[in-house]
Amino acid sequence: MENKKCKKEDTDAPPLRRNRPGTKFKDAYKWKAPKFSELDPMFACQEYLQLLVRDEPTNINKLMEVPEKQSPYVWEYEHFRQICLEMNYLLVLLQEECVDGNCIYMYIEESVVFCGAHSTPQECCPMNYAVHNLDRVTALLNSDKHFPSRVYVKEKYQKYFRGIAFRLYCILGHAWSEHASIFYKFEGERSLYARLMALSDRFDLIPKKMLLFPRPDIVAACMAVHNRDLLSLHRQ
Ligand SMILES: [Zn+2]
Ligand SMILES: [Zn+2]
C-alpha cells in the first residue's frame, strides 16, 4: 500500500532535469525541453533562456523573442546575465595570447579604449580591461539595490544596460581586432557578438556613432573566409 502511494507521488513529480555524475558531455542536457509554464516562475526566464541558448545559440530571432506575458526588461536582464557567464569562457581562451608582451593597450582596430571600471578612466591592458569590466558588470547585475527581483526590472534601469552593453562590446571588439582566430572559434560556437548586437538593436543600447568594429553580418562573412582559408591550409 505504502509502495503504491510512493509510486503515485513519483509519477506526479516534475521530471528531473539533471546531469548525473559521470555523464559524458555529448550526453549532457539530453532531456525533453519543458514548456515555459512548467518552469519555476521565479527563475523561469533564466532557465528558459539557458535552454534556448543550449539548443540553438545561433538562432538569434528565437532568442530575442520575449516569452509570452513576460517583461521585455526581465528578458533583456537575463540575456546580459547569460552573456556575462559565457564571456568568461572567452577570457579563458584569450589568456593564451592576450598577454603583456602581445597586448599592452586596449586596441579595437585603430582606437584605444579607456577602462571605465575605475573612478578615473585608465589605460588598462586588454586582459585587465576585460576582467575589471566583467567584474563590474556582474556586480551591477547582482546588485540588490538596482536589480532586486528576477521577475521585475524597472524601465528606468535601462540606462545601466547601455553601459553594460558597451563594456561587453569592447571586450568582444578587442578579441575580434587582435585575436581573430580565437574570436571566430568562440563566435562560431556561441554567437555571443550576434546576440549582444541583437539586444542592442532591440533595446536601442549602443549608439551607431560608438560602434568601433563591423556589425555581425560583416563579421560572419569574415569568419566564413577565415574558416575556409584555415581549412585549405590544413588540406595542403
Ligand atoms: Zn589582446
Ligand atoms: Zn581597468
TrEMBL record:
PANTHER family linked to this entry: MPS ONE BINDER KINASE ACTIVATOR-LIKE MOB (PTHR22599)
Gene3D superfamilies, per database record: MOB kinase activator
Tree of life domain: Eukaryota
The name this protein goes by in its record: Mob1/phocein
Keywords: Metal-binding, Zinc
Biased amino acid composition, Basic and acidic residues: 1-11
InterPro entries: MOB_kinase_act_fam (IPR005301), MOB_kinase_act_sf (IPR036703)
Chain segments carrying region Disordered: 1-22
Sites where the protein binds Zn(2+): C98, C103, H174, H179
Residue intervals passing through the bilayer: none
